[in-house]
């Protein structure tokens, strides 16, 4: 065999060295990329629900969903809330503090359609992006809103009532917080669905998202209008408070009731016939999707302006289906 020339041997050595150097560069790049990724601080997400209430299944599930989303995406979830759903001032103070604390993003469930708008706007003007969950504001300042379509949900309540409507209906509404977008929109949907009976709606009272207040205002409403034979409760506090009043006054057989949300007590009230139906939200998904959307915003991705997390009307006859059992007992189904 003819020996290689010195030039060919030199070219071979150079090619080998270039291959080794290239491989080393690739390995070092991967090493430092992984090291930088590992050392990168997780996204800091300030999550501000309307309230933290261990007695309320809706808020428990929504917060659990947000925590599951944070774990899934490796984010740090900072949880702060007012001491009551109608404490607008305290929620505004939390938002103003956020401007100083500088989280990467804020997820907010506004306690009011109007009264925390200025504080929320101050957050966005400081350069911190905002996601809304559960409720809306009167100005379009958020990157996305993840919520139940509450007008549609109100119409579903109306359908439950229409299926069980007394011959001469007299209708009362027990809402939650006056001025909250969820209360406004659910009542709007309910009234749309009952438009034929608009003159039969005798009044709306507010529980301020408190079971005892819901109980008391319902008793007062029934004293003022003893001919009421239809009642709609627009959130868990309102529905449960109103149902307790109807049960204690021994009016269950005389009043057609429809509720909202799906606490264990509401499920028992549905099963026992106090409620003709309840409209169930998907709070776990709502919380999870809000964090997923927040992470997408921080990654520079385009997100939908509005995401409907869904709702379902459930009656005593349909409550035992597999799908409704999952909704009622809050089996956790995250979305990828």
Written account of the structure:
By secondary structure, this protein is an alpha/beta fold. It has helices at 6-39, 57-73, 88-101, 117-125, 150-163, 181-193, 211-224, 236-248, 264-271, 283-298, 322-328; strands at residues 44-48, 76-79, 105-108, 130-133, 144-147, 171-175, 201-206, 230-233, 256-260, 277-281, 306-308, 311-315. It has 11 helices and 12 strands. The longest helix is centred in the first third of the chain and has 34 residues, at 6-39.
Care to give the gist of this entry?
By secondary structure, the protein is α/β, with parallel strands linked by helices. It has helices at residues 6-39, 57-73, 88-101, 117-125, 150-163, 181-193, 211-224, 236-248, 264-271, 283-298, 322-328; strands spanning 44-48, 76-79, 105-108, 130-133, 144-147, 171-175, 201-206, 230-233, 256-260, 277-281, 306-308, 311-315.
SSE layout and pairings?
Blueprint: H1 6-39, E1 44-48, H2 57-73, E2 76-79, H3 88-101, E3 105-108, H4 117-125, E4 130-133, E5 144-147, H5 150-163, E6 171-175, H6 181-193, E7 201-206, H7 211-224, E8 230-233, H8 236-248, E9 256-260, H9 264-271, E10 277-281, H10 283-298, E11 306-308, E12 311-315, H11 322-328
Parallel strand pairs: 1-2, 1-3, 3-4, 4-5, 5-11, 6-7, 6-8, 8-9, 9-10
Antiparallel strand pairs: 10-12
Approximate helicity band: 40-55%
Distance between the termini: 64 Å
**Rg of Cα set:** 27 Å
Low-pLDDT runs of 5+ residues are 331-336
> Hey, roughly how much beta strand do the residues contain?
15-25%
The main sheet orders its strands as 2-1-3-4-5-11
Please give the largest β-sheet: 6 strands, parallel
Number of strands: 12
């Amino acid at each position: 065999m003819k020996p290689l020339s010195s030039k060919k041997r030199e070219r071979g050595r150079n090619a080998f060295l270039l291959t080794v150097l290239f491989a080393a560069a690739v390995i070092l790049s991967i090493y430092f990329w992984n090291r930088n990724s590992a050392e990168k601080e997780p996204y800091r997400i300030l999550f501000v629900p309307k309230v933290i209430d261990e007695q309320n299944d809706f808020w428990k599930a929504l917060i659990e969903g947000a925590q599951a989303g944070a774990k899934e995406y490796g984010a740090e979830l900072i949880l702060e809330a007012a001491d009551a759903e109608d404490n607008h001032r305290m929620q505004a103070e939390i938002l103003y503090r956020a401007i100083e604390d500088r989280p990467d993003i804020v997820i907010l469930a506004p306690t009011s359609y109007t009264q925390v708008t200025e504080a929320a706007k101050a957050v966005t003007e400081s350069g911190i992006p905002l996601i809304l969950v559960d409720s809306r504001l009167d100005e379009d300042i958020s990157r996305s809103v993840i919520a139940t379509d509450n007008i549609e949900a109100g119409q579903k309540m109306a359908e439950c009532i229409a299926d069980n409507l007394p011959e001469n209906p007299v209708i009362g509404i027990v809402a939650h917080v006056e001025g909250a977008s969820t209360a406004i929109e659910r009542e709007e949907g309910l009234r749309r669905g009952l438009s034929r009976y608009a003159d039969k709606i005798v009044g709306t009272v507010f529980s301020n998202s408190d079971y005892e207040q819901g109980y008391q205002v319902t008793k007062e409403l029934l004293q003022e209008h003893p001919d009421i034979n239809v009642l709609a409760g627009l959130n868990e506090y309102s529905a449960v408070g109103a149902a307790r009043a109807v049960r204690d006054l021994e009016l269950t057989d005389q009043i057609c009731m429809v509720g909202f949300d799906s606490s264990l007590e509401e499920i028992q009230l549905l099963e026992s016939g106090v409620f003709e139906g309840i409209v169930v939200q998907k709070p776990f998904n709502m919380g999870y999707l809000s964090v997923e959307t927040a992470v997408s915003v921080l990654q520079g991705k385009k997100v939908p302006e509005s995401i409907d997390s869904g709702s379902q009307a459930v009656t005593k006859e349909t409550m035992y289906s597999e799908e409704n059992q999952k909704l009622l007992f809050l089996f956790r189904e995250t979305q990828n």
